[in-house]
Design brief:
The chain is built from seven helices and no strands. The chain is mainly alpha-helical and 194 residues long. The N and C termini lie far apart (121 Å). 27% of the residues are buried.
Amino acid sequence: MKRKSVYLAGLTLLSLIVLFSCAKPPTAEMDAANAAVAKAQADTNVTQYAPDSLKRAADSLAKMKAEADAKRYDNAKTLAQETIKLADQAIADGNAGLERAKDEAAGLIASSKSLVLEVTNALASAKKVARIKLNFTDLTAQFNSAKATLADAEKDQGSGNYKSAIEKGKKARTALSDMLAAISSAVQAASKKK
């Protein structure tokens, strides 16, 4: 009886050793996860417009590698699948971010162009107002600078550099809005002096 239980214990131990020695890392899944993250990292839309999504995918990849190193292969396999989904989501987020940036750049440029016309008309009208306190030389220089910034924004938009186009579009719009407000204020002040 003692021999039989020793035999069974030995057999159980041997089975466990064989079982754990046969456990292998999920190489195919891990390779696919590595490839998915590499693809996302190489996508400029992802790096520019979805860096947070890319970071989540890279973090998941690091966890997957840590689990594989610790020989927790089931966890590594699960994380590999999650990493692939996160990398795919990063690519989708990058493409969506690009579309939002395109729309924002176009909107800023269009609104700034309309402000250029408003400032042009306001300047022309202001020059006809008696006793107006405006430095037309400075305003004209600011106006020309804002138009140049707007032209640069359009160039950036045309070359697909939407982040720069947005930044320059905002700068031009703010400058033009400020000029319009200054002109309007000066016209009102001059009108009250009559």
